[in-house]
Amino acid sequence: MFSTFSSTHDPLDYHMIWHQRAILEAVDAFNSNDLQALDMGLISQLPCQEQCHWAIYVALHKSYRDDYPYLQAILIREILFQYCESWSSQESQRQFIEDLGIPLQWLHEAMAVYFNYHGDLPRALEHFLECENWQKAHSIFMTSVAHALFLSANDSETWRIATSMENHKSEIENWDLGAGIYISFYVLRSSLQEDNNTMAELDSLDSKNAACKDFLGRLNESAAVWGGNLHVDARVAYSKMADEICNLLLSDTSGSQTRDDQLNCYDTVFSAPPSRKTFDQPIYRMLLQFSLAVFQKCQVSLSS
């Protein structure tokens, strides 16, 4: 009766005998532990027919076994990982799986691994964030995603992703030299651009210079820590950050500032991460001219 040939010519078609077995089990005709092969046969058959959601349904309805207490969870996670492309591409299947009460974290984890394997790193990053794998999400963000967003001027998305990990920074290695760099950049740039009460601590050139020097030092340290893991465009992004901060700092060196304050700012700017053809860039040509002029004035003052 429980042979596949009793209901079909297909030796892999278990669906009819599974229903027969459910009826007989309901009336205590036999113990379900005796029919593990039947259950596993149906579970393995359904995904091959792109019916992953029903395979998970069957796995959920397997009876608990003391000798294999985690069997259901193992089966379900294996289906999710192995057949991710099938169930994730069909909204009806995905919704059915969610309605069965399968933890969303399991679904996101399977999709994160799938997209990471196929090189779709932005989508993998989103799913690693959803399944709360903060370390892996941070690694992908720094090595593959952040610089592309930053260089395309997609500041809102860069900020959104970085701040979404900030509450879990204690779980992330090198946070301050990773995504924390981008958050610090946006905060510092805003403070240099705006003159408001909330940023009163940066109201003097000396305090602005100290904040910029600290940021540029961390930027250099970040580039050293990540090393070869950083894409060449990430280094371009770092140079662009440094240029923006340096430009804003130098814009405050004119006026009634002392020569020492000005020289201190120039010294800070020279500590910035260099980019390709650094000294061909207008900002550095201007910086060299200004620093030389200030130095000459200092020399004249000392000799007079």
From TrEMBL:
It holds the Pfam family Nup96. InterPro entries: Nucleoporin_S59-like, Nup98_C. Coiled coil: none annotated. GO terms for cellular component: nuclear pore. Residues 2-114 form the Nuclear pore complex protein NUP96 C-terminal domain. It comes from the Eukaryota. This is Nuclear pore complex protein NUP96 C-terminal domain-containing protein. It comes from Hibiscus syriacus.
